[in-house]
Design brief:
Elements lengths: L1 H23 L6 H21 L4 H31 L7 H19 L11
Helix pairs in contact: 1-2, 2-3, 3-4
């Protein structure tokens, strides 16, 4: 799970910078928002990838929260980018669904703080 989060964090960061550059050179109304969501959430996944311990109740909640955030960003930013570049949406309500998933993922991450960490691992 850590490697997945690290991979996606890097892809989100690169895509966010690319979309920010595209937004600066076009009049597309959606690219700035898509870029912002990618760049804001890349560090979350980076932190989960670097520091997340995904065993025990807290770890499982962190993994689930991270995956929900990931899915939300893909839907939200992907829909906005597609609208800009192709003139169509992923599907009806894709961006709002993505936004709702991002909020839900953050709530799951917050709830994880209330859960037991699980057994300590020996190295």
């Amino acid at each position: 799970m850590s490697r997945l989060f690290l991979l996606i964090a890097g892809l989100f960061g690169a895509s966010g910078v690319g979309l920010a550059a595209a937004a600066a050179h076009s009049d597309g109304p959606f690219l700035g928002s898509a870029s912002q969501m990618l760049l804001v959430h890349a560090p979350v996944l980076l932190a989960l990838g670097l520091f997340g311990a995904f065993s025990g109740p807290r770890g499982r909640a962190l993994a689930i929260g991270g995956l929900v955030v990931l899915a939300g960003v893909v839907l939200f930013s992907g829909d906005l980018a597609l609208r800009n570049f192709a003139g169509r949406s992923l599907f009806s309500m894709a961006a709002p669904t993505g936004g709702t998933l991002m909020m839900g993922g953050w709530i799951i991450l917050a709830i994880s703080s209330l859960l037991p960490q699980g057994a300590a691992r020996s190295h």
